[in-house]
Amino acid sequence: MSTAAPGLFEGPAPRRVARVAVDVPLAHLDRFFDYEIPDALDETAVPGCRVKVPFSGRTREGWLIGFGEAQPDMKLLKLKSVVSSEAILDDDLVALFRAVADHYAGVFTDVVRLAVPRRHATTEKAPQRQWPAPTPYETRTVLTQFPGGEAFLDALATDVGPRAFWQVPCVAKSPGDLVGGVLEAVAATLAAGKGAIVIVPTIRELDDTVARFQATFGNASVAVLNGELGDSARYRNWLALRRGQAKVLVATRSGILAPMEDLGLIVVVDDGNDSHAEPRAPYPHTRGMAVLRCVATGCALLMAAHGRSTDVAALVERGWLKEVALAPAQTRAITAPVRLSGDNDARRDPMAARLRLPSMAFDFLRTALSQGPVLVQVPRAGHSAGLSCQRCGEAARCRKCRGPLRSQRQGRLECAWCGFEPPRWECEFCHHQQLRAPIVGAVRTAEELGRAFPGVVAINSSAAMIRSDVPDAAAIVVATPGAEPSAPSGYAGVLLLDTELMLMRADLRVAEESMRRWCNALALCRGPRDGGRVLAVGPSDHPALQALVRGNVGGFIAAELAERTAAGLPPAVKAVRVGGDAEAVREFLDNDPFEDVDILGPNEFQHGPTLETVALLRVPLVEGRELVRRVKYAAAIRSARKEGGRLYIQVDPEVLG
How far is the C-alpha of 462 from the C-alpha of 31, rounded, in Å? Predict the structure, then answer.
């Protein structure tokens, strides 16, 4: 009796199938597609690598997500090529990208495009440099000054995964040292053998933070990711994170989606800054992505800011974040005292009158300049904004697009919408040729204050002329929000001008955002023991300014949140903003009945030269996931039907107008 060879009657081995995320930004195709793996690619096709596949008659790039087995009667197209065998994605990243896409009613490959830098072949093939372990840092002098701060650091060191919001006092030195407190949190995380991701809003904050992190943990041990890095440097750092070589990442917005082996802590700095909102689909926000990643991995989360967003206040109110903050009385004791001055002070000296300043503000500058540099925050950049006819008061408009005219430089007019620069201007109603500027920008303010205080240097930090620092000598530094340079010993005084203009913006978050901007300016001021002082010029009875005087930012934002809750506005409800062309918005709303969904609009809004139609869909928070699912379903119908027009979808929008 003969013995058959093993496997002789077992039949052909099952074909391996590659599950691929094809780079197609269409909602109805937001899934993985199966492809047969040719024998020639069997060894190079690994999970997480970049591939090219045939799709709808074209060759497209994609990501090999995983493997499966083909059914006997299954006819599949074959992988065309493997771009690189480098495993860029892993199961954790795929799950994170999927969660972000679903949360923001977006497409998986759009999230991948935001998170993964472009491939740099030379960098990928070159040997990666050595990434030394971060230098241990055991100093605890900042967070330990706050109730619950020591416990938070201890929990990080023991890998418990705490979640907290740190309300940073508005003072230039400790305990207002935001970066110093973040350093302590990261050091505690590293001591537990875990990695940390720190996200800051802009390049300016990134440069300052990276410098201190490198000085603490070692120049070669801190990875950096931001949009201004070259392709090679960005890809090199990303690979170091993916390969588990780097344990500390300091980055801007998209770094929240970067890989990190044994992630122990995520830090989001100044979450209310609008730079945390991604301007590309699916329009995710750093804060929301941090929460999603924290929930998925169980890592610790620290939100840190001088101000406070209503979104963070809602998480604190629900008990999801623990508050690390001083009481208002303690805050007032360590921060510069804030005084208010209305803009209707009749007692003006001649120079103050020409500067359109209350005499109190003029006296404030004279006194503070004797102690050191003074920061003057104004809400507008440029020379003059809001130009109007000097005779009849009619707004100055562009003759091409009807946009508002402004003056970024003295003697030069330009349209705020189309950029047209008219050689001359004449009022179309009274034919007068002289303009007046009721709204003065940073450039003109610096010019006028420089003339008012001869012998004192006047510095403008705004728009394209942002300064990183200023000397400790007496100087007037005029800056717009977010462009304030730091002074080595802190500012002797901070003057907040035109606060009523900041509070008059047509925005649901106007008071919250104004408070954030003021707090960031005050955080550059010396404490009361060093002679620091603050004066705000504006409506002294406004609750936001009153809260600034009392040092009670948390109480003010809690009141804002209560008003939002009563009015049924975010973050008290789940909201989705749908905007674009009028017909596109109407067709989208017809793609689903949206029962039990409160729909506000559609309404028309003027955004610059563009007329936009916007609808707001809202439901209670407990029904939020179902609303997003239905919105994504309606988007898939629109995509499958090839409905035309411009349309965008924003879940948890920062702006509602």
Answer: 45
Distance CA 150, CA 173 (A): 19
Q: Compute the distance between CA of residue 249 and CA of residue 213 in angstroms, rounded to an integer.
A: 10
- pLDDT bracket for residue 74 (50, 70, 90): confident
* Mean per-residue pLDDT of the chain: 90
Residue with tokens 């017809």: 590
CA–CA dist 429, 616 (Å, integer): 39
- The residues facing 339 across adjacent strands are 535
The number of beta carbons lying within 10 Å of the beta carbon of residue 470 is 22
Q: What is the mean pLDDT of residues 579-589?
A: 95
Q: What is the pLDDT of residues 130-171, one digit of tens each?
A: 999 999 999 999 999 999 999 999 999 887 899 999 999 999
| CA–CA distances in Å: residue 328 to residues 41, 165, 331, 635 | 65, 16, 5, 47
376-415: string of b/e by CB count within 10 Å (b at 16+)? bbbbbbbbbbbbbbeeeeeebbbeeeebbbbbbeeeebbb
**Backbone conformation region of residue 571, classed left if phi is above 0, alpha if psi is from -120 to 50, else beta:** alpha
Q: Nearest Cα to 303, choosing from 191, 202, 198?
A: 198
Separation of CA 552 from chain center: 24
Side chain identity at residue 448, one-letter code: E
Contact 53, 62 (CB under 8 A): yes
Residue 138 makes CB contacts below 8 A (sequence gap 6+) with 187, 191
And the tokens for 605? 């809004």
Strands (E), 124-175: 163-167
Inter-residue contact 80 to 52 (CB < 8 Å): yes
DSSP-assigned states of every residue in 409-459:
ETTEEEETTT----S----TTT----EE-SEE-HHHHHHHHHHHSTTSEEE
Q: pTM for the whole thing?
A: 0.90
Query: pLDDT tens for residues 273-295?
Result: 999 999 999 999 999 999 999 99
Q: For residue 171, what are the β-bridge partners?
A: none
Angle, helix 553-567 to helix 510-522, in steps of 10 degrees: 170
Helix (H/G/I), strand (E/B), else coil: 308: coil
CA separation for the pair 313, 553 (Å, rounded)? 11
